[in-house]
Amino acid sequence: MTHETASSLQPPKVIFSPIGWMREHLFSSVWNSILTLITLYILWLLVPPVIEWAFLKASWVGTSRDDCTPGGACWVFIAQRWSQFMYGFYPEALRWRVDLAGILAVLWGGPLLFQRFPWKKLFGFSFLIGYPLIAWWLLYGGDLFGMTTVPTDQWGGLMLTLVIAAVGIAGAMPLGILFALGRRSELPVIKAVSIAFIEFWRGVPLISVLFMSSVMLPLFLPEGMNFDKLVRALIAVVLFQAAYIAEVVRGGLQAIPKGQYEAAQALGLNYWQMMGLIILPQALKLVIPGIVNTFIALFKDTSLVIIIGLSDFFMIIHRATVDPAWLGFATEGYVFAAAVYWIFCFGMSRYSIALEKRLNTDHRR
Amino acid sequence: MNETATATTTPNRIASHKTAEAMIVMEHVNKWYGDFHVLKDINLTVARGERIVLCGPSGSGKSTTIRCINRLEAHQSGRIVVDGIELSDDVRQIEAIRKEVGMVFQHFNLFPHLTVLENCTLAPIWVKKMPKKEAEVIAMHFLERVRIPDQANKYPGQLSGGQQQRVAIARALCMKPKVMLFDEPTSALDPEMVKEVLDTMIELAEEGMTMLCVTHEMGFARTVADRVIFMDKGEIVEEAPPEVFFTNPQNERTKQFLGQILNH
Ligand SMILES: Nc1ncnc2c1ncn2[C@@H]1O[C@H](COP(=O)(O)OP(=O)(O)OP(=O)(O)O)[C@@H](O)[C@H]1O
Ligand SMILES: [Mg+2]
């Protein structure tokens, strides 16, 4: 502050030039230049045909396979089946209910994903309590206000996939945290139960859990008592993913220095205050990549529910590709399925990066 | 704040007048880590307003002793009474004691995900159920006392070590503790920052805070301490006012220790 000249110096300006950038990053050495050229050649071989197929020679409008030109993708197929891909066999006249549930989720839950705003806590709380009830009422129906019931075996398509993924994530997160805390508990019973739970669910494939839920569970339940197939699948997914989340979170808990626990205790915080205010906020922040990784895997694993006869997004598309009216367009179907899964997973991935940046207050040295 | 109300809600205060005078009483305290006898029959009484410095070689059990006082470590036999509350396995007793005992650690242990101000208001808000506004006023008061009010909205990672330790002191003071425990508060600091932390501690002592400090800052012990206690191998070996302790130590081990620490 005493040195006027030093403090008034500006940082050096960085001038961006494309040629300079290329020289530095792509052609900095002979070997690097060769690699760059090979890569460009491979891209040249691969990319134009794909673009040609997917966009340039593709057919976009029409009503049947006759409107498609050979040599390009037939997106007419996707367009024609669009609403089935989205809603499955949900009655057409009632699909506005699904839309409404989706819009509510975006408007009510969406803001919670982003910056702080006044009343965020209250808003979030109302969403966590209110939204599941309202969404269930909208999607399933029930006697309240004479909503027509839509049994879950008519649910399908992307809507079903999103329901399973959302319930899976919303259920697995808190349960996983509890089991992570349980596994580190000093109370032997809680610790043993947590370890048993985690190791059981981590040790069996999800597909066998789903099978068991539909084949074995009815054997144990009393006669006449019938659990909804979707509910069983949801419970299986939640428990299964909770075990994974628990281990991810435990990794985070282990990374928190003992001094943080001691400082919290010395200030008189009780166990739940210490965990909720000091330890978990830090531990969860550390394991955001692991948590999002688990959720991305969960999102894709939802497609396993087809083996108990639910028609999720992937299954609906798969079925459409074997429809005689559209035989031969399987590629378009699977490419579309992959693209949609990719968009959701990539979205989660980007969100996790943004979240990490936003929460990075440590400035650890 | 009603005096009788607070008295009745505090669990099991002991009314005996010997303990009523004392802030901390440790009687025949023993502790083992497995087979290792860390604390051997520790007897220590800290009167209200008294400033005590605890020193001794590394591994002698100084940290363990003060950490037993707020139950960061459990002792296995003997009695510990803090402000009339006897320490037991009862969580309510432990929490009652922790509300009255502030602690400052060697490595600060600030909460890195909270701002300096939030670090200071957290416990008053959650433990004492104080309204946020009031807690912030108190926090700013103590941050001014440790001379860093302008850093209130920074995160701990943005501060220097000395500043962090002063925040840690302010954070403990915000709970309005009756005793402050310090565990080598300056030994993780760069030399030029030691003074600012010691000055804060000296001011605190001058205001009459009851303090129990583990430190090797002998200058601090000389100017501030009412008594200096020397521990070795889990025992209290010698206990004397600083002028006697430094000029005329009785025990061989004390002499040896002082020789090492003062002549380097
Ligand atoms: N959790 C533990 N388990 C086993 N032994 C321990 C544990 N904590 C401390 N000890 C041992 O107890 C003894 C006393 O430790 P303590 O930390 O109280 O020493 P100290 O006097 O504070 O030493 P320093 O000056 O190095 O901080 C040491 O020998 C230490 O190795
Ligand atoms: Mg120590």
From TrEMBL, chain A:
Transmembrane regions: 26-47, 94-114, 121-139, 159-182, 203-221, 274-298, 304-322, 334-353
GO cellular component term of the entry, any: ATP-binding cassette (ABC) transporter complex
Gene3D superfamilies: MetI-like (1.10.3720.10)
Localization of this protein: Cell inner membrane; Cell membrane
Keywords associated with the record: Cell membrane, Membrane, Transmembrane, Transmembrane helix, Transport
GO terms of molecular function: transmembrane transporter activity
Main location as per UniProt: membrane
Origin superkingdom: Bacteria
Gene Ontology biological process terms, A to Z: amino acid transport
The ABC transmembrane type-1 domain, residue ranges: 158-347
Topology relative to the membrane: Multi-pass membrane protein
PANTHER family for this protein: INNER MEMBRANE AMINO-ACID ABC TRANSPORTER PERMEASE PROTEIN YHDY, MEMBRANE COMPONENT OF AMINO ACID ABC TRANSPORTER
Family per record: Belongs to the binding-protein-dependent transport system permease family. HisMQ subfamily.
Protein name: Amino acid ABC transporter permease
Protein species of origin: Hydrogenophilus thermoluteolus
Lineage, opening ranks: Bacteria, Pseudomonadati, Pseudomonadota, Hydrogenophilia, Hydrogenophilales
